[in-house]
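Researcher: I'm preparing a figure for a lab meeting and need a structural model of a single chain. I don't have an experimental structure, so a prediction will have to do for now. The sequence is pasted below. Please return the structure as tokens so I can convert it later.
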Amino acid sequence: MSMRVTQNMTSSRLIQNLNTNMRKMAIQQDQISTGRKINKPSDDPVGLTYGLRYRSDLTANTQYQDNISSSLSWLDFYDTQMDQATQVLQRVNDLAVQAGTGTNTPDSLDAINKEIAELKNQMTDIANSSFNGKFVFGGQLFDEKPYPSGTDPKTVSADAGAVTYEIGQGITIDVNMTANQVFGDADPAGTTDNVFSMFDRLSSALQSSNYSAVTAEIDDVKSRMNKIISARSENGAKTNRTELMQNRMEEMNVGLTALQSKTEDADMDQLYIDSTVSQNIYQASLSVGAKIITPSLVNFLN
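Model: Understood. Here is the structure written out token by token.
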């Protein structure tokens, strides 16, 4: 038994097809205007899930990159300060060698002692260096000078708390060098290679023209210089690792951006072609519809 196709059924099917084409054109126009193929969840629920995941990863990656930049700034600053400390100790070593010859006059020893006093002040300034308003050798006590005025620096035990940055998912790095590492442990008795103890002993030996005591300090000066060099090596290793992480995060950022673009961004060339085809189909549907239904309905649709 054949089914009778009425004029009403033909009109309904035409209207349904026209509405389908119009919705398709509306979606394509939205994609063209935004440059994105996902403008609402219903466009691609699975793609939207991946897109949100990529966005979250990119946000985290950006924060890691900021942390890495901050870490490198800290590490570079520490390297500069330890280089200056090494230069001060190198000058102290030269003066100790000069003063220990036994041929210096009291005036010469006094002049050397005065320079030693200035070098001690310079070393104290280095120990109290600040970066972005934070005292870098004060551990986690950023707002306090590790070697405050009015105290004997060789007796100070500065905070040794670690300054840590997260430079990757589950990857952290301690960027600070403690005062103990660079300048030596607290030495109230004044007998170790604490840098300030050495200054005091050397100054006392110069004042008393004790040449053997002056010469004896040379080994302690070299010992402290070697420890600072070792600290610089550790700092340099951290810098290298952080720079590697920086390169890794930059590559990850490129990869995640490409994946996000592939998931969310529209192929504009193909989209313009598809939009033109959809418009031609819609116009053809109107033209055909005009021949199979009453003009009044087609006019209304137009």
